[in-house]
Every structure is written in structure tokens, then in C-alpha cells.
Amino acid sequence: ILSHAEVRESLARLETSDVLLTNCTSDAQILQSMWGEEPEAGPLVRQIKLPIDASILYPQDKAECRELLPLPECDLVVGFISRLLPQKNLHQFLRLFAKVKQNLLPKKVAAVVVGDYWVDYPVLPYVTRAYRAYIADLITTLELTEDVVYLPADLSNEDLAAVYNSFDVLVHPTTSIDENFGYVPIEAM
């Protein structure tokens, strides 16, 4: 919930027959707390499960999944899946990955980054035009050019499942204030 004031302002227009849907426990608790001592005076707040398709996202053979990806020769794969925006923290992921790579020598570690860069972000007024160039410079500076594989966000469900199953570790370092948990950790589980 980005703006508590905006939600509070809208509450007066709601009827007790209205239902507010959330996808996480914390948002449901925030909304329910806005009615104070009389939660029954406000609309119903219901949490819905994230729509994860377990018939597609299930454990698969890691070696077979890695063969489907354009990975360099490696022992371990560290993954990052997200919209490529500053608040999703790809830059911190890359710094972390560089340290992991160094600490695990002589093992070879690869990083898979799945996502697309966003030029603007409709929910919050972030300016992200320079982020792609910043990430490219960071990859060069950290000497990760041969170790990072990019895949687009529009993967098929089967390809996405293969990507998740190829990871040894998923890193989800988001600092985005407009989501409390997100789909990626749930899909990875």
C-alpha cells in the first residue's frame, strides 16, 4: 500500500458490502487496522493467493534445465528475476554475485538475469533511463562480462520453469515499496 492517506480518503466512499483484495498478509493487516476498534464497520478485506501454476512450476532435473540455457561452463548458477529497475536492486545483486564468484574460486559461478529494463514506472515516479547504462558499466567494472547471462522477461512458462530449476540460488533483493513480497520468490519455491 503506497499511500495510506489516499486509502484513508477513499474509505468513506466504500460500502460494507465492498471487498478489498490483497495478495499478502501485511497489506490485509494494514487495511484492517484502518478501521480501528470496529473492523466490521469497513469493507471486507480478503487475501487471495498468488496465481502460481503448479502444473508448470515444479522441480525438474537441474542438469537438463541448464542444457536449455545459454550458460557458460559453470558449477553453480545464481539467479535474479525481476523488472530491471533501480528499486529491484540488480546493481546490488551484481555486487553480491562478484563477491560470491570470488569467494567460491576455483568453482565457476554464472549469473542468470531475467527481465526487461523499464524506461518509466507507472506506479511510482522513478526515472530509470540511465539504469541500463549504469548496469553495463557495473558489469564491466566488476569483470562479469563472461559470467552474466541475460534472458528477456517474455519467456514461455516452460522456459521460465527451466530457468528457475537451473538455479542453485535465487537472490531477490528488492527494495521496492510497492510490493511486500512478489511473485518471484513464490514461483521459485
Give a description of the structure.
By secondary structure, the chain is of the alpha/beta class. It is built from seven helices and six strands. The strands form two sheets. The protein has a four-stranded parallel β-sheet with strand order 5-4-3-6, sandwiched between helices. The protein has a two-stranded parallel sheet with strand order 1-2. Helix 5 links the parallel strand 4 and strand 5 (148-151). Helix 4 (90-103) runs parallel beside helix 5. The protein is elongated. The protein starts with a helix and ends with a helix. The model has no long low-confidence stretch (mean pLDDT 86).
List the helices and strands and how they pair.
Blueprint: H1 4-11, E1 19-22, H2 25-33, E2 44-47, H3 62-67, E3 76-81, H4 90-103, E4 109-114, H5 131-141, E5 148-151, H6 157-166, E6 169-170, H7 183-188
Parallel strand pairs: 1-2, 3-4, 3-6, 4-5
Helix pairs in contact: 4-5
Placed side by side, the strands forming the largest sheet appear as 5-4-3-6
Structure summary, number of beta strands:
6
- Helices, by number, come to 7
- Chain-averaged pLDDT: 86
The CA-CA distance between the termini, in Å, is 25 Å
Structural class by SSE content: alpha/beta
Oligomer: single chain
| Beta-strand percent range | 5-15%
Outline: elongated
Major sheet description: 4 strands, parallel
Q: State the share of residues found in helices, binned by percent.
A: 25-40%
Low-confidence stretches: none
The helix/strand order is HEHEHEHEHEHEH
What is the alpha-carbon Rg in Å?
Answer: 20 Å
